[in-house]
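Bumping my old thread because nobody answered last time. Still need a sequence for this structure:
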């Protein structure tokens, strides 16, 4: 039975401890601002107060008290009336209030300010707070202010006035000099800002003038019919030259219709006409000289224009075939390189290779006098934001950025193909194959003619 009773007492022990802790917490919460809870008596007791000239050290109140709580003396420039007050600074009578010191302060009392300093006065309708004790300069005082009149007379009594001398007191003169200095500084700032603004406007106007001067004049909308002023005299040779230009610059369809619809104006036979046309064709093919406008009719001129059109069309077709062949060759090299460097990041390539590609993607690179897309367009194709692109200076930083983001060399080549920089793709692929020691793919045999 005794054993059972001891077990029952042990079971009630945690509940008892919890109840005591809750009770102590409730007692601490019931203590006031300057009270602490005494664990011995179970009551709230008042925190020890400090004597005048001292302030509390650490904290005590609301049921708690620091172990090293006590009082420490105030510094020389501060005071405290004791109790639970902290040390505060003395009034700055001369510096802040512009008044005389009536009673200096010590560690137990605050300083007391007296009347205003000479050259200062106190407002009549002043607020009833600490700012109501502030004195103001007599330079800003209304006329016949008592304190300022007395200060002016006292100054004139102490300092004999000479003809042309000032009647202001030394504090007034100092304040006036300060205001004058501030006025001169403001004037200098205004003049400087006006000068800077004028120079900026002048620079902008000069830049706009040179831009407009350097801009080429816009071409006429219809080159085949040049515009002339009505006052300018027109000579017969200019009219003939304009007529020749108008005849030559026709579309192929119109020329063919004119050839088929043009009637024979002479009594020559068909064989003579065809032989003459063949001679004209041979002459135009053998020589690049323009035929004389005199002595030839409209059918011959139309025929020559058709020859020139056929020549331009064949040259354009040859150029387009060459471009397509080079494009196919670059894409074949691109496909073979993608298999070689699969999974490698751009920064794993040699620095010379990346630096060469960066120079090709710079804004100063010019291919065949045509506008090309730069590394900024490449960065936009990778989805980088404009503020992030603005923090970069060249393609090397872009390559480092996309390598950090996890992009590979094949993805870089794909983006270059998308922005139509096949020249950079060709150069980079050649450098990669040389670095990897892989021979370039053999060029396909030319098609049989």
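Sorry it took so long. Here it is:
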């Amino acid at each position: 039975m005794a054993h059972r009773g001891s077990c029952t007492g042990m079971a009630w022990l945690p509940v008892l401890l919890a109840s005591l802790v809750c009770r102590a917490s409730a007692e601490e919460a019931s203590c006031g601002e300057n009270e602490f809870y005494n664990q011995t008596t179970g009551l709230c007791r008042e925190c020890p107060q400090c004597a005048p000239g001292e302030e509390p050290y650490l904290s005590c109140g609301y049921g708690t008290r620091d172990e090293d709580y006590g009082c420490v003396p105030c510094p020389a420039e501060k005071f405290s009336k004791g109790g639970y007050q902290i040390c505060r600074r003395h009034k700055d009578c001369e510096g802040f209030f512009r008044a005389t010191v009536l009673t200096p302060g010590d560690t137990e009392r605050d300083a007391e300010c007296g009347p205003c300093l000479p050259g200062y006065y106190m407002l009549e309708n002043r607020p009833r707070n600490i700012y109501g004790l502030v004195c103001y300069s007599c330079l800003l005082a209304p006329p016949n202010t008592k304190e300022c009149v007395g200060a002016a007379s006292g100054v004139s009594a102490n300092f004999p006035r000479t003809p042309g001398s000032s009647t202001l007191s030394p504090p007034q003169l100092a304040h006036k000099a300060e205001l004058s200095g501030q006025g001169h500084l403001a004037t200098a700032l205004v003049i400087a800002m006006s000068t800077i603004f004028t120079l900026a406007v002048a620079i902008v106007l000069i830049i706009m003038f040179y831009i407009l001067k350097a801009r080429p004049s816009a071409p006429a909308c219809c080159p085949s019919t040049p515009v002339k002023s009505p006052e300018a005299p027109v000579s017969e040779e200019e009219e003939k030259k304009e007529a020749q230009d108008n005849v030559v610059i026709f579309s192929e369809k119109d020329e063919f219709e004119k050839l088929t619809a043009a009637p024979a104006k002479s009594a020559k036979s068909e064989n003579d006409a065809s032989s003459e046309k063949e001679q004209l064709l041979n002459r135009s093919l053998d020589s690049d000289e323009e035929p004389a406008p005199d002595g030839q009719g409209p059918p011959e001129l139309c025929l020559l224009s058709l020859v020139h059109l056929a020549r331009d069309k064949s040259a354009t077709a040859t150029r387009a075939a060459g471009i397509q062949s080079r494009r196919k060759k670059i894409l074949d090299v691109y496909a073979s390189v993608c298999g070689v460097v699969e999974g490698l990041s751009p920064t794993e390539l040699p620095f010379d290779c990346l630096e060469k590609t960066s120079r090709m993607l710079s804004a100063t690179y010019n291919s065949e006098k045509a506008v090309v897309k730069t590394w900024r367009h490449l960065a936009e194709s990778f989805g980088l934001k404009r503020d992030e692109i603005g923090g970069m200076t060249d393609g090397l930083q872009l390559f480092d950025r996309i390598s950090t983001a996890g992009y590979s060399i094949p993805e870089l080549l794909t983006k270059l193909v998308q922005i139509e920089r096949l020249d950079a793709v060709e150069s980079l692929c050649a450098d990669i194959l040389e670095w990897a020691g892989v021979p370039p793919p053999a060029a396909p045999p030319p098609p049989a003619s």
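Residues 232 and 238 are 12 Å apart (CA to CA). Let me know if any region looks off to you.
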